[in-house]
């Protein structure tokens, strides 16, 4: 938290100093929410709560005016996931006249659903929200992962199948377009300039994690049915062979040196 | 746990500021996954433990002696690569080892108190989620098989970036 200067007089709450982008501030306060969850230490709660609420914007959906020229779906998504985490760990609620954690996550979900883009690649979310930003033509795993992750979590939290439907729809698109391999490696993205026929196969740990947690949420969501026929859900041991096979298969994957050299040029400088 | 883009390749590792924080999120999601899909614990908890150990060894730099480096694979040899992402990653993986003592993740029927609004945001009202068709038993059974395969598969994919040692 010593990196955070937003609670200094004259500085901007919820923002980190350069070189840290706005999205990482959103992720950082999610980590601080979990810090409270793990430790019960409330020392940082006032700063974290104030920071999160300072970035909700006039529509209460994490589209604040000071970010709207550069904000991408993943940027908004990370703030939305922080709000969802706050709901799931029962982080102290804001005063009732302020936006609430669950509603903020729903707002991000609704915005993203409205941006689902069938004009190319038969669906998917674009990385960027606005046409003038570099990366608007890029449909990537992290943007779609944010939608999948939030949708799955809302399905479980609220018990509403509409959210689950969107989680499934997003997963199917990601898998169908080839951003997820047969052994569940998650690749970075694809361009709609080629109608998503070529895949950028860079791998990042957060892409793997965002789909992992969303899939776990869907697993949990469907497990809490009263139907006795859910053998696969009620007896996790049944999944062990499949899971073990994928684990060993994936661990034998050897990264190529060519992929490493391109890794650090992925994000456009304008971002 | 390692971030491929941020590991040392031939000479000196080089990755962007964003990527230096990614291990924080994988750590958080692996830990939280064990709460809602307990069968993943036997796979993930040992990896989170060994990764936390490695991260702690790397947090030996700076004038304060507790600044964290980027390369957990370097163990106690501080790599001099510091920043918010490195601190956040180390904090996340270390505190994630308390997941078994942490409370369950709630829902609105298991003690969750956060208030929702299905119409929140500026999205199209046509996409409103207020109209709900209840899932049938068959829907749920099908979804159950599917999501189990998803989860097991994605967890397997994690092993690409998390080694046990």
Highlighted features:
heterodimer; A: 271 residues; mainly alpha; three-stranded antiparallel sheet; 10 helices; 49% helix; B: 165 residues; globular
What does this structure look like?
The complex is a heterodimer of chains A (271) and B (165). Chain A has 271 residues and is mainly alpha-helical. Helices cover 49% and strands 3% of the residues of chain A. Chain A has a three-stranded antiparallel sheet with strand order 1-2-3. Chain B is mainly α and 165 residues long. Chain B is globular. About 6% of the residues of chain B have low confidence. At the A-B interface, helix 1, helix 3, helix 4, helix 5 and helix 6 of A face helix 1, helix 3 and helix 4 of B.
The shape of chain A is globular
List low-pLDDT spans of chain A. Answer: 226-271
Point out poorly predicted stretches of chain B.
124-133
Strand runs of chain A, count: 3
Distance between the termini of chain B: 9 Å
Summarize the structure.
The complex is a heterodimer of chains A (271) and B (165). Chain A has helices spanning 22-39, 45-54, 73-88, 101-115, 141-158, 161-177, 205-223, 231-234, 240-251, 257-261; strands spanning 138-140, 189-191, 199-200.
What's the helix and strand layout?
The complex is a heterodimer of chains A (271) and B (165).
Chain A: H1 22-39, H2 45-54, H3 73-88, H4 101-115, E1 138-140, H5 141-158, H6 161-177, E2 189-191, E3 199-200, H7 205-223, H8 231-234, H9 240-251, H10 257-261
Antiparallel strand pairs in A: 1-2, 2-3
Helix pairs in contact in A: 1-2, 1-3, 3-4, 3-5, 4-5, 5-6, 5-7
Chain B: H1 22-36, H2 41-58, H3 84-95, H4 137-158
Helix pairs in contact in B: 1-2, 1-3, 2-3
């Amino acid at each position: 938290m010593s990196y955070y200067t937003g609670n200094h007089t004259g500085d901007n709450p919820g923002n980190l100093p350069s070189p840290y982008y706005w999205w990482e501030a959103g992720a950082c306060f999610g980590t601080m929410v979990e810090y409270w969850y793990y430790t019960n230490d409330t020392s940082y709660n006032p700063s974290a709560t104030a920071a999160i609420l300072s970035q909700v914007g006039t529509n209460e959906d994490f589209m604040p005016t000071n970010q709207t020229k550069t904000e991408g779906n993943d940027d908004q998504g990370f703030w939305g996931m922080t709000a969802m985490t706050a709901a799931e760990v029962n982080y102290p609620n804001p005063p009732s006249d302020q936006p609430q954690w669950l509603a903020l996550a729903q707002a991000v979900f609704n915005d993203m659903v409205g941006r689902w883009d069938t004009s190319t690649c038969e669906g998917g979310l674009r990385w960027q929200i606005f046409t003038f930003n570099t990366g608007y033509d890029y449909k990537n795993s992290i943007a779609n992962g944010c939608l999948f992750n939030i949708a799955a979590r809302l399905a479980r939290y609220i018990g509403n199948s509409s959210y689950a439907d969107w989680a499934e729809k997003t997963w199917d698109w990601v898998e169908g377009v080839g951003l997820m391999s047969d052994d569940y490696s998650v690749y970075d993205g694809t361009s709609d300039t080629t109608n998503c026929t070529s895949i950028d196969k860079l791998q990042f740990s957060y892409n793997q994690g965002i789909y992992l947690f969303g899939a776990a949420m869907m697993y949990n969501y469907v497990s809490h049915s009263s139907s006795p026929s859910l053998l696969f859900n009620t007896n996790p041991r049944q999944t062990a062979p499949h899971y073990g096979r994928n684990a060993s298969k994936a661990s034998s994957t050897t990264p190529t040196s060519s992929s490493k050299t391109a890794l650090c040029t992925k994000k456009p400088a304008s971002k | 746990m390692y971030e491929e883009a941020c590991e040392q390749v031939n000479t000196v590792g080089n990755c962007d500021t964003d990527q230096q924080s990614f291990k924080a999120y994988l750590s958080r999601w692996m830990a939280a996954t064990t709460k809602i899909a307990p069968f993943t614990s036997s796979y993930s908890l040992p990896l989170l433990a060994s990764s936390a150990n490695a991260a702690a060894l790397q947090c030996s730099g700076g004038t304060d002696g507790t600044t964290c480096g980027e390369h957990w694979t370097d163990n106690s040899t501080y790599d001099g690569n510091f920043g918010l992402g490195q601190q956040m990653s180390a904090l996340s993986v270390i505190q994630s080892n308390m997941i078994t003592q942490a409370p369950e993740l709630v829902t609105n029927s298991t003690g969750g108190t956060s208030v929702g609004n299905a119409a929140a945001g500026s999205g199209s009202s046509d996409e409103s989620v207020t109209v709900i068709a209840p899932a049938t038993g068959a829907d749920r059974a099908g979804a159950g098989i599917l999501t189990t395969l998803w989860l097991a598969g994605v967890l397997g994919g994690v092993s690409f970036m998390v080694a046990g040692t």
